[in-house]
Amino acid sequence: MSKTDALRNAKSELHPRNRHQARYDFVALTGSSPELKPFVRPNRFGNDSIDFSDPEALKALNAALLKYFYGVAFWDLPPGFLCPPIPGRADYVHYLADLLAESNGGIIPRGRSVRALDIGIGANCIYPIVGTREYGWRFVGSDINPVAIATAQTIIAANTCLSGNIEARLQKQPQHIFEGIWRAHERFDITLCNPPFHASEEAMAAEANRKWQGLKKRRTAASPRLNFGGQANELWCDGGEEEFVCRMVRESRTFGERCCWFTSLVAKQASLKAIHDELKKAGAVQVRTIKMAQGQKISRFVAWSFLTAEQQAGWRAA
């Protein structure tokens, strides 16, 4: 771990370049996005806020944030699709930029020559939006859900700042992650992924129930709703995140010389051992676990490469 990583990992705060350090400025946000205004009301401390248990309020907040900070005039989701918090998503992108800088003389590579592959772009398209608007990178995003791909394509086409910089591709072979998406002779500087967290639908429901009971929320349905939404493939898969990332590691070997860094978020600390064991079997030359923090929540991503540091240093020139 570099000195920079150690310093950042010691802090329980968002990445220094993250635009979402401060409290939400609802006056500014509703000024640029009047659609958010009906959801804003004083909380118990007398400050403007929204009901974060309301999916429609969260969607309106995300649309406002993307418009105000990233110049995305149109953003919308079909009912039931994942509507993730933008600050945490932006953090992952900024830490990826730092990772690329380490093999680029300490300078963050910017512009269209940098290509990233987002595994599981979802209907929300947020990682590519942030990466394109912050660093000018080009993105390919994959998903197994045709509706998610169609929605992402609609968002891209509706915003001139995104058109030509983000491509959404349908993964027609759900048993594969890179195969079927990664085209012949295609190279990516970095891959990213927010894998399905849960091992089963039952485990997902139990976790949601635990969280809602912890928040002392009153439930009016048979099972607690997820305020952030999400389709089945976004939230759970056989074996959960551990098996998904291990499968990604195994498949990444085929594309090892055509990528500078592979990465994936890992929510559970307990998942790391199996993933690191799989990376050792796969022959990864470099492996990093980079922590991120947002208040009391600690998250992390694993990064690996089949290239040596010397080969990575020549990546930009090549």
TrEMBL record:
Example of a GO biological process term: rRNA base methylation
Cell compartment(s), UniProt: Cytoplasm
Pfam families: Methyltransf_10
Catalysis: reaction(s): adenosine(1618) in 23S rRNA + S-adenosyl-L-methionine = N(6)-methyladenosine(1618) in 23S rRNA + S-adenosyl-L-homocysteine + H(+)
One example GO MF annotation: 23S rRNA (adenine(1618)-N(6))-methyltransferase activity
Enzyme Commission numbers on file: 2.1.1.181
GO cellular component: cytoplasm
Keyword S-adenosyl-L-methionine: yes
InterPro entries (UniProt xref): METTL16/RlmF, rRNA_lsu_MeTfrase_F, SAM-dependent_MTases_sf
Main subcellular location: cytoplasm
Keywords, sorted A to Z: Cytoplasm, Methyltransferase, rRNA processing, S-adenosyl-L-methionine, Transferase
Similarity field: Belongs to the methyltransferase superfamily. METTL16/RlmF family.
Biological role stated in the UniProt entry: Specifically methylates the adenine in position 1618 of 23S rRNA.
The protein, known as: Ribosomal RNA large subunit methyltransferase F
Protein species of origin: Marinobacterium nitratireducens
Lineage of the species this protein comes from: Bacteria, Pseudomonadati, Pseudomonadota, Gammaproteobacteria, Oceanospirillales
Gene designation: rlmF
